[in-house]
């Protein structure tokens, strides 16, 4: 006797609705029907969204998807390990409110959609479930007056600081405080059976990461079972008290010269799961390498001179045909005809009937960007991968400088999203002098490879160059990765997006790959733009040739 | 003067989204042929009108279609009492007297029609009138501009390589939200805050591009919605009339879009 | 005056089904191009006649079809004894003299014919007559209105995106049963109770839309049935003549529809 | 019963009739013929309506469908659990009357349809079946006078309150009362063998929800397949092969005509991990489908003619203007002028002064390739996805043939890399004749989707076509997969590569996607070359339109 709307009937409309609102395309799946339908709550993870197969109305479905979409836009899942169930519930409550308010800032009409579901009224009940339902309303509606001290405190703290709503840690902080208060109130809470209210809100499973996959899930198909609230109780044995730890951010910057480091930019990062940029997500810190003496490896003079010749040749190789010249090496056929016609008609012919070929310098800026992550310390040839990168870069830079090509040289690495290091060796305007060579020698290999951020930063530097063509030549021995990204695909997709963004701005990006998975590199850079150097030792000879070929 | 009616007297409002004005001016200084690419209604036509006004050039516009023949562009002989009379087509007119000639939706024209522009786009800068045995050298002020929408699905509808390569290109997208809100506010007269809401509606519809809609709302549609609002129509009704209904006949998409419009106000 | 014969002297009966009159007036105040969407015979044409009368504008109507060329809309040179003479097409006429120009069933026109209206639908509000080298600036009263039937299987016949997006849209459906019965009663002179039965026949046929029929009965057909009944024809026979037979030649559908008509009386 | 009407003959009319009356579109299926045909009663549930395969007349079928439709409009099924059979019978009797009266309010002519079947007359019989038949008449016809107290009471109570007819509970209430009375009358009732009268009325099965379906009909799982003729064959082969057909891999090539299968090519496969082709990795086997009669589904003539017009129009839509013709439909103005000028100058004018428009065929070859893997057996519309693919292909092929476009038609599927089956339906040179249509009808869905191999094979066929443009139009409901490929990405990347290879040979590849992940399809085919058909049922109408749009 269901009088409601069936998901199957509404699916197409709902998919279009959530796509329109948030630009995301999650598959919608029915929840397994193994209980009271009225108690079912939506669930989501980064792959899909599950909704009851039948629900009272379209508006409930819409409200649920608008809410889940707000999470996908503004929430990042936290590790749940070691957190008490009560804490998780209360933090989720604040997180729900936080993302809804952010969503309503952008789409104020959502208030009309959600408000009718917040129907609870002030009461004297001190049951945890009732308190939390009332808190949900108090955090949604600033005009609601509850009267309970706990609810009022949460409401006041939340609405006092709308400026902090952008920060997910705000939910952690308030949730920690209020969960502590609730704990002291000795209210009984049934964490296993707790049901989120109002019903359009998801069961919070998508907000929390559980390290250990749950015991063999009965529904193999259902990745969401892993994070359902009943997991929480399972972990209750793991007793650890105290405030929630703020997220897994290892101590930043164990770097020597902190003075030389300064934040220079923030860049967005692409989240492929939601199909959106997270604005200003990454901080780039500029960190000028300490000058060191250039390595003692004796220069191979023959190689050097070959490279110089190669670059010089490439630089001037572009012929340009000039027509209707007064003199030249060939007749310009069109001009000849015009002149003949003119003469026939009795006019004085234009005698500029030659064409000639002029070779001119290229209208090009290049940025050579070296991977300076930990893995470049791996041995290769006589030294490390980084040694070879350095040597190649030095050879190339010397030749480019001599030929007058416009270029810059830098390294990059990362230590979480707040510490993407940009290591400038030579900027566009500067000369490639001993100071620059010293900085190149001072490059060392540490940490990780947040490639997308580095590509975007390189793009911002290249975009300002006044040349027609702009080229980013990235030398790396691995694939994107960073300590705060458990999902390897995330940074791959971000890097791919960054490459596309640069392409959209007319900047060519080419990757010289010294290792790593070719498939990944092809995915990021496009097949044509990856040059795999199979023997790292050959890099010094190859890199200039690659450059010449790319730009010639 | 021959092109008086093609002169643009008042400044057409145009809100730049980047350095496109400087780039076009540079191209114009060299009389380089320019191609404007971008989705429907993102402001290509307005841009070229603005540039014509800014550069003080007359603007001859031709909306291309499959029936457009070379003669329609170049001109033809007409029979008058005293004999045949040659009449210049719009392209010839622009070439002779030094106008910007703007061929809108050039992919719609037949390939054999578009080749007549080739001699104008290289060093020759001349238009051969085969039927008259005349080679019209382009006026020093003449510049050719074409526009096209790369978003078409049809494999067949694309410019020939040999045509494409003759142009420098400027790409137009929908303007950034803030700029688009400025444009909508300016053109429709509604408050900036309300214009931002209308632009949010546009963004919602563009999210559905490729997910059922061929195109999202153009800036032009958003201006229409703004004007209806300025005339007293309720915002949701205005967006329904100017955005939702014109975009799609699919009932599911309409429902979704209407609900998303509701979220914006 | 040039368009005297296009003026509508007496009020055409029109029964509003929503706020379409106010919305159209708002759009007209801005001379915004408007698209009327809806199935055949649901009252789009009557609506625009009513609006033209209400706004006091002449109305130039063009019924589009596949053979309609751009010249048919815009005008052409005619060969006369004394030479060629230019004759304005209906669109040009409306543009020059300030009429509502109503292009009915615009999807029937070939896509490339419809692009000639583009310059009229943006800020330019001008119609280039390429063949005459004339740029006709639109009269301040000119407004363009098109009608189209989104029908079923709409992918096959659809307006180009670049055309669609130039219009605000009003959607027409068959009126609600009560209103439609009023219309049928008013136009045919039969009793309201009987008119409701006739409208029930219409609903039956519309249930078959997309299930074998391309279109259900239009209001117009129901009025025809009503008029036959008013002349003394038995209701079932009248509906057969005015609804069933015109709608389909398919014997199965005819049988089904006739049986369904039988259920209505 | 040879004098009756066969459902098969009347089906289309009846479907249109019920659609016209009630706006519903239930599939009509014959009842299994396992008893006395005169005792058979219609049955319905929310998926379909079953009617006797042969019945005395159209009016009986129409009366039955009008009645079932009234239930679908005005009844809501009640849970049957715990209710006595007698109660269920009597409530159903009132419910039948209630919905018929509601229907007659809207469509008074239905009275003339149903009335002739209520032919029972007053009698002294106290058999329950007789009483109930007379009650049915009494509740239908207020003018009927029975004389039996029980019947009169029911009639009076029912017609006293027409204002309550809108409420289904009214039937429950009256039925409860009258069933109680009947119980007290100690009449004998055979609830199991009870036959509803009059015969146009359904067996009440659709009115009641049984927790466990009353008789576990095998069709419950697959209501649409249950009664199709080929079902028997399918079952037989299932039995022969052992495991049920839901298992992904029945013994390979259990196909009828093994002689028709021969290896025709080997193709490479792309391994994205190593960035190389594995040469000759895949074997393509050609397997001409057995000819079967084309499905009995009557053609939608109007759609057919629309499609023909569409294709004809597209095929010839490119008009070519021929000038200076000796005859034609329009004057060539330029030629006229030239002639006039010539005459003025005293020359003999050239009288080729007409122009005409010739519409010419396009320089195009198209290959329509249908996914014939297991998943295409999923239900869609009235049949399966494959049915729709077949129907669409038939429509399109008929139109292309009529219009003279050069095309071929084939299916594909795979069962591991050594058995990629290519199922040719029509080759480029051949006509689209009855033999080809028979092969199309013989396509069945099995096994997997090794898409890259199919694309390459299609490419090798298209490459030989002497036209300027060559188009592969691939219709699929899923994504690449095969039994010997655990890594889903492998075949995706291979298919993408295959598409690029074809593009490199100047062959356009367009995918019509009936399902599957849009992201994957975009990755393989490129965003612009994927046309997602979100409602599979619309494919027959859309496919020709897509073709026309792509090539017009």
From TrEMBL, chains A, D:
Domain VWFA positions: 365-546
Positions of the UniProt region annotated as Disordered: 193-225
Top-rank taxon, per record: Bacteria
Compositionally biased tracts (Basic and acidic residues): 194-204, 212-225
Listed name of the protein: VWFA domain-containing protein
From TrEMBL, chains B, C:
Domain spans labelled ATPase dynein-related AAA: 33-167
Superkingdom to which the source organism belongs: Bacteria
Keyword annotations: ATP-binding, Nucleotide-binding
Record-linked Gene3D superfamilies: P-loop containing nucleotide triphosphate hydrolases (3.40.50.300)
Pfam families: AAA_5, CbbQ_C
Position of the signal peptide: none
Residue stretches making up the CbbQ/NirQ/NorQ C-terminal domain: 180-262
InterPro entries registered for this protein in UniProt: ATPase_dyneun-rel_AAA, CbbQ/NirQ/NorQ/GpvN, CbbQ_C, P-loop_NTPase
PANTHER family, sorted: DENITRIFICATION REGULATORY PROTEIN NIRQ, MOXR FAMILY PROTEIN
Entry's family note: Belongs to the CbbQ/NirQ/NorQ/GpvN family.
Protein known as: CbbQ/NirQ/NorQ/GpvN family protein
Organism: Azospirillum endophyticum
């Amino acid at each position: 006797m269901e009088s409601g709307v069936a998901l199957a009937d509404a699916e197409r409309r709902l998919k279009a609705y959530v796509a329109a609102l948030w630009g995301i395309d999650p598959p919608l799946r029915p929840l397994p029907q193994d209980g009271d339908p009225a108690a079912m709550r939506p669930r989501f993870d980064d792959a899909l969204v599950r909704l009851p197969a039948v629900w009272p109305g379209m508006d409930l479905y819409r409200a649920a998807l608008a809410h889940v979409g707000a999470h996908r836009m503004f929430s990042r899942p936290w590790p749940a390990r070691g957190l008490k169930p009560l804490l998780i519930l209360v933090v989720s409550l604040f997180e729900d409110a936080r993302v809804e308010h952010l969503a309503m800032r952008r789409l104020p009409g959502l208030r009309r959609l959600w408000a009718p579901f917040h129907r609870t009224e002030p009461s004297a009940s001190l049951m945890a479930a009732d308190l939390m339902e009332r808190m949900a309303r108090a955090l949604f509606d600033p005009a609601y007056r509850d009267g309970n001290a706990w609810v009022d405190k949460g409401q006041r703290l939340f609405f006092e600081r709308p400026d902090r709503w952008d920060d997910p840690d705000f939910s952690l902080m308030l949730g920690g405080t209020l969960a502590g208060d609730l704990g002291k109130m000795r209210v009984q809470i049934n964490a296993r059976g707790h049901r989120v209210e109002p019903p359009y809100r998801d069961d919070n499973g998508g907000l929390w990461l559980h390290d250990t996959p749950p015991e063999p899930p009965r529904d193999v198909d259902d990745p969401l079972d892993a994070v359902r609230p009943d997991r929480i109780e399972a972990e209750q044995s793991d007793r650890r008290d105290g405030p929630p730890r703020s997220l897994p951010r290892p101590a930043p910057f164990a770097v020597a010269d902190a003075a030389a480091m300064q934040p220079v930019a923030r860049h967005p990062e692409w989240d492929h799961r939601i199909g959106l940029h997270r604005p200003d997500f990454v901080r780039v810190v500029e960190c000028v390498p300490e000058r060191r003496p250039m390595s003692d490896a004796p220069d191979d003079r023959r190689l050097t001179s070959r490279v110089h010749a190669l670059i010089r040749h490439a630089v001037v190789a572009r012929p340009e045909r000039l027509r209707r010249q007064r003199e030249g090496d060939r007749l310009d056929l069109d001009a000849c005809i015009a002149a003949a016609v003119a003469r026939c008609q009795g006019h004085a012919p234009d005698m500029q009937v030659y064409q000639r070929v002029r070779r001119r310098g290229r209208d090009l800026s290049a940025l050579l960007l070296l991977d300076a992550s930990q893995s470049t310390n791996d041995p290769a040839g006589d030294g490390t991968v980084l040694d070879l990168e350095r040597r190649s870069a030095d050879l190339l830079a010397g030749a480019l400088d001599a030929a007058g090509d416009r270029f810059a040289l830098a390294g990059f690495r990362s230590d979480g999203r707040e510490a993407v290091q940009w290591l400038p060796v030579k900027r566009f305007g500067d000369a490639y002098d001993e100071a620059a060579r010293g900085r190149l020698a001072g490059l060392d290999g540490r940490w990780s490879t947040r490639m997308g951020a580095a590509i975007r930063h390189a793009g911002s530097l290249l975009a300002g160059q006044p040349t027609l063509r702009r080229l980013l030549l990235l030398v790396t021995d691995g694939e994107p990765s960073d300590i705060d990204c458990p999902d390897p695909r995330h940074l791959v997709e971000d890097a791919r997006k960054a490459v596309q963004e640069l392409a959209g701005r007319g900047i060519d990006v080419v990757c010289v790959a010294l290792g790593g998975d070719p498939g990944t590199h092809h995915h990021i850079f496009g097949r044509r733009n990856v040059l795999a150097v199979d023997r790292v030792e050959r890099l010094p000879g190859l890199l200039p040739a690659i450059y010449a070929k790319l730009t010639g | 003067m021959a092109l008086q009616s093609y002169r643009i007297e008042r400044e057409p409002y145009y809100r730049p989204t980047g350095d496109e004005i400087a780039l076009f001016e540079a191209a114009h200084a060299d009389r380089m042929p320019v191609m404007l690419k971008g989705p429907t209604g993102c402001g290509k036509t307005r841009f070229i009108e603005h540039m014509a006004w800014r550069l003080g050039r007359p603007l001859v516009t031709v909306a291309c279609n499959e029936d457009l023949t070379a003669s329609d562009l170049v001109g033809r002989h007409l029979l008058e009492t005293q004999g045949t009379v040659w009449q210049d087509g719009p392209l010839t007119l622009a070439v002779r007297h030094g106008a910007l000639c703007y061929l809108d939706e050039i992919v719609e024209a037949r390939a054999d029609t578009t080749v007549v522009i080739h001699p104008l786009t290289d060093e020759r800068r001349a238009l051969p009138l085969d039927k008259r045995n005349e080679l019209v050298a382009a006026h020093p002020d003449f510049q050719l501009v074409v526009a096209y929408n790369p978003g078409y699905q049809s494999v067949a509808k694309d410019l020939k390589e040999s045509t494409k390569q003759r142009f420098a290109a400027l790409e137009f997208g929908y303007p950034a939200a803030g700029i688009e809100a400025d444009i909508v506010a300016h053109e429709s007269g509604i408050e900036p805050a309300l214009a931002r809401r209308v632009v949010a509606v546009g963004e919602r519809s563009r999210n559905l591009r490729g997910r059922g809609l061929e195109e999202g709302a153009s800036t032009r549609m958003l201006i229409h919605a703004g004007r209806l609002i300025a005339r007293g129509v309720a915002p949701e009704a205005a967006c329904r009339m100017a955005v939702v209904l014109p975009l799609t006949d699919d009932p599911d998409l309409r429902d979704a879009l209407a609900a998303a419009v509701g979220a914006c106000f």
